[in-house]
Amino acid sequence: MCFRTNRGKILPKLINPEATKLLEIAEELLVVFSGSVGQVREKLEEETKQVLDGFPGNAIVGRGLEKLLLDRTEFDTEAKTELSDLRGKVFFNSAEIFSAKKAFHFQGVEMGDKADLGHYQSEIAKSVGISVEQLSRQLYGDLPAFQQVLSFRKMTAASLLHRYNCAQLQGLLLRCEGLTVSLPESKAAELRQLLKYLRFNKLLAKISHDQRKKKTLMLEIDGPLSLFVNTQKYGLNLANFFPAILQQPEWELDAEVRIRKNHVHSLHLDQSCGIRSHYRQFLAYIPDEIQMFSHQLAKQIPDWELTSSADFIPLTGESLCFPDFLLKHHSGKKVSMELFHKWHVAPLQSRLEQLDSQKGGPLLIGINRSLLKNMQLAEQVEASTYFSHYGFFFREAPTITKLRPLLDSWLSNVQKTN
Description:
Blueprint: E1 3-6, E2 9-12, H1 20-34, H2 41-53, H3 59-71, E3 73-75, H4 81-100, H5 115-128, H6 132-138, E4 149-152, H7 157-173, E5 176-184, H8 188-200, E6 206-209, E7 216-222, H9 231-246, E8 252-260, E9 263-270, H10 288-300, E10 304-308, E11 313-315, E12 319-321, E13 325-329, E14 334-340, H11 345-358, E15 363-368, H12 375-383, H13 385-390, E16 391-394, H14 400-417
Parallel strand pairs: 14-15, 15-16
Antiparallel strand pairs: 1-2, 3-4, 5-7, 5-8, 6-7, 6-12, 8-9, 10-13, 11-12, 13-14
Helix pairs in contact: 1-2, 1-3, 1-7, 3-7, 4-5, 7-9
């Protein structure tokens, strides 16, 4: 990571994606990686080192580009028991040879004469039933240096340089304490794309309109260092969300980042940074556990259908809720569902306050049971009138057993009021 700090602010050292010299480095690295399929990792790294040695003034950037390309490379890492068995045979037969031929020495090796070593290799290869060439290639074939390159996802040189800049900022967000994104004049379709990425990464945001600029939408997201959870996993989710922000036509980002143990600095960015997102349009992704739940719902409660939610729900305090899913009844009635995972303590507290204060809303609440380890939150959930009527607990994913009575109760209440 390359950045500097000045008066409490973080100033990332971004590269110019149009710089001729950097484009040359990127092009040469891409040629090496594109032609690496079928080679072993050791040879790939040797060739990339030769490229980077040719640009000594850009060594740090070059290593960063190499790392990004390695992330796009698939290596054969499958454990191969046959290679372990082969080594066992080699060691056993070596012991037999040296035991039977006590006078067997590698005489003359110090002088460069490898005749005895060649004879030894021939005897070992013969004893295990393969050629000397196969023995040399397979003996340590499962070590990282000898892992075979299976595939490489190609990209352009310019895209690689933009990806480098994006990764620099993602690295900073791994140490984020809080993040605010301002979206002026964003269209509904663009916002839905962004919020799909938010949901995909299991993040929750406080969504509201800016009090000064009513058309500006504000997203406030807790950072990993402000939560007592698996900060590494949550930080990765937050970093993976950042490229989705880059897809918005206009945006501003403000974050508090803990660079060192007791030093928090502010990071400010907007669309003028010029970084291009490597994300494509988000397709309708549904996690495996939710797909399974959807199939169970269709079988056990055929009157209801589970789909992705696409609409905002206005709540108290100029706040908006973008639920995870929408449940549609065959009568045309609809109710949204929002799930709260183990790092959603603060968003859940806020949501319960909103729903209890406005005494209702077309929203079912699912809470991961691990959240109840927070005693203050557990007491709030216990005291929530809204949750007692429209809330349920889950572990990995919702279950039909938990959801059926809530849907029946909600539909009954809607029909009474109508």
